[in-house]
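Hi,

I'm pasting everything inline rather than attaching a file, because the server keeps stripping attachments. The sequence lines come first, and each chain or strand is labelled.
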Amino acid sequence: MRVLELRSISKVYGKGAAQVQALRDISLSVEPGSMVAVMGPSGSGKSTLLTIAGTLEEPTAGAVLVGGADTARMSGGAKARLRRRTIGYVFQDFNLLPGLTAAENVSLPLELDGMSARRAHLAGLAALEDLGLGEQARRFPDQLSGGERQRVAIARAVVGERSLLLADEPSGALDSASGEAVMRLIHTYCKRGTAAVVVTHDAQLASWADRVVFLRDGRLVDQTVPPAGPESLLEQPS
Amino acid sequence: MSVRHALLALLSEGPKYGLQLREEFEARTGEVWPLNVGQVYTTLGRLERDGLVEALGDGDSAEGGPQKAYRITGAGSAELTQWLHVPTELSSPPRDELVMKVLVAVRVPGADVHEVIQAHRRYLVQLMQEWTRLKEDEADVDLAFALVVDAELFRLDSLIRWLDAAEGRLRRARADGWPPKLRTAPASMAVLQRRRRIGAS
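And the predicted assembly:
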């Protein structure tokens, strides 16, 4: 089953002369275990696409299906549960709460979802250890490097077996080694079955995805075809 | 790529046979550039002719056998050091076919330069996906191979960035009324001379 399906999504902001068409007739499906990168210049609609996929915004037209369920038919409470349990978000500026430790940041979504503080804390610690951040669990965000903060944010986004990871320029503020570590991590989660949509203008990050779609002026104008396999690069005549 | 200097570098570690040089060359470059043994012997012949390496007699070689072993000479070591420290010649812009195609697509009637740009962008991203896949499993990636893959990813990435910049520039130019109805003033002689000096150097 598709984890995410966007059917003919359009989004219009404003009215009359001030009207802006941010997205036009976008259809996109993401299967479990696959990573899709969305590339496009500033203002092409990448972030709008992600907020609509994450049910943080409603499309003007079209349908958003998560795990096969049409989100337009869900109550506010059901949508909030979907956002807590099924969808994980990663932002360029990490969005960690500065007054909470790394472990508390990671366990927060589980606690909000009704898990006991103790169980949530243990699950948060396990998620951090999984990322090699066990020693940083008791540190506050301002005691972590940029790369570590983003890895904590990814732990928070995937904790609790969520099936859809949405990332907006997840390594935009990081150096190239930390950026690669972040993409490697998202890729690892995808191999375990998570579906991911990563919005970026950076081709090096996008190249970690199984499929890259290109957005221009709110339209999906092109996409990569499945690669022939890496061996083809090494079989060129000398 | 300079096979000549790569062989000198391998010989700077000690005398080696031709076949051994081929194997070590491929291993040190992450197995990305295959080298045939004929190319190794041709290059060794030229290096010997230029006095940069010398063949060892059977008595001097590390192992016996019909193959010849070679060692680097003093002149060879000096040549290697010189090559490492002198920056690679990059001062004149290459006549890059991709740049040419975009320049041509801007002018050819009926050609859509944005389609040309996107076709190349997609192709380059696909190539980058294939290179990234090669370094996916860290356990399979040794240092030499990682360096080669990074170099290729950065090279392809720079082309995509140029395409992005070119597309932005074309859009802004269109918004500003390009192409102009009247001929624009030609570049001044001083500007022309400066451009041509860069192109010809």
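The helical segments of chain B are 3-11, 18-28, 37-49, 74-85, 97-107, 113-134, 143-175, 189-200.

If the labels don't parse on your end, tell me and I'll reformat.
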